[in-house]
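2024-03-11 09:14:02 DEBUG pipeline.ingest accepted 1 chain
2024-03-11 09:14:02 DEBUG pipeline.ingest length=441
2024-03-11 09:14:03 DEBUG pipeline.predict start
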Amino acid sequence: MPTYQFEAMDPTGKEIRDVIVAESEEEAQATIRQMGYFVTKIVEKKAPKKAEKKTGKKRKTFAIGRVSAKQLTTFTRQFSILQDAGLPVLRSLRILENQCRPGPLKNALIDVCEEIESGASLSEAMAKCPKAFDRLYVNMIKAGEAGGALEVILQRLADFKERAQALKRKIKGALTYPVAVVCFAIAILTFIMIRIVPEFKKIFDEFGIELPFLTQLLINISYTVLNYWFLIPGVPLAIWLFVKLTCRFEAGRYGFHLFLLKMPIFGQLVEKNIIARTTRTLGTLVASGVPILEALQITKETSNNAVFERLYGKVHDAIREGETIAQPLKENARPRLNLITAFWWAFFLGGPIGLLLYLLKWNQPVIEDMVINMIDVGEETGELDTMLYKVADTYDEEVSVLTEALTSLMEPLLIIILGCMVGFIVIALFLPLITIISELS
């Protein structure tokens, strides 16, 4: 039905401007006169062309991969602030979706908004976007919706994500320097072996002198690097592929992850990092009202370590039978002797020496008694989430201190190793030169 825009005057002479919907212009004028107005101008109002509303599919962009942890952490904090301010969920998501750059998160938020408009809850909508929102995220949102405290849950989730991200940044920052030094040193030494040492070999051959043992060893290393240079990137790549292939099998994955937990120096860092992350995850879920069995299952899936996955799985089964958390955790904290783990010790740490070190450490528990005792106290007092948070905070601090200590230790150690390598090259090259100079003099 058309719409007419009119100008008219009322009985007092006041000008009226308004719109009216009618079948025709005559019907519109008649209706206006019945209202007591005198029509001075009437025009059919043309409906504006409807802008083509962009559907979710049209607004999406091509994106590969999952949402990064950093991006999801920022989104969670912003979403928490908007909910705390009292904005509706859909309005908050639309605001954040418009702010997002094209990518996996923007596409996921478009899908979530469309699902909510179709009548789904926030947790149900997020569950359909696993590349952006994992089970931990979805279940915490679900608990917040059930308890009517979504803004509180989002704050806890944002705190959890920010702490995990801060710990990850600290570890990455500590490893950046030694990795950069090692890569640069390998590049320099490879250049010396390929370009410099062969030139010295030509000089030594021209004089026909007998080469010392160190010089001959250096030349042999140089020719090996020159002829088999492709092994420098090839060997690490082959080892990485072998590890990946082995970890595709449950037994191989368990054995390698157990080796990571027990390996010298870095094993403690890996173990404490996993304990800090899993206890914080479990504490956050328990505090948010997620049932303990579901919380343990999510913690198991997000541990990213086969040893802790098996450990939390056994705790999950024990609780289903009516036990507490602390007792099965203590019973299963000591891993059994594993042949695959023994192979990795022998492979990386020099055969018999590696096996001997593994036999000395294989029965050490992956979770300390202090953690188990604090969990036991938390269950007795009804403050399990508080105790789990304290364990996570303690281990976060230990990881930070251990990372700084390892970094401080690795810097002089790298300098000593590089100094020895450079010294070996210099001595090996100068010994024949001294002989040549003596003969010439």
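2024-03-11 09:14:41 DEBUG pipeline.report The first helix runs from residue 25 to 34.
2024-03-11 09:14:41 DEBUG pipeline.predict end
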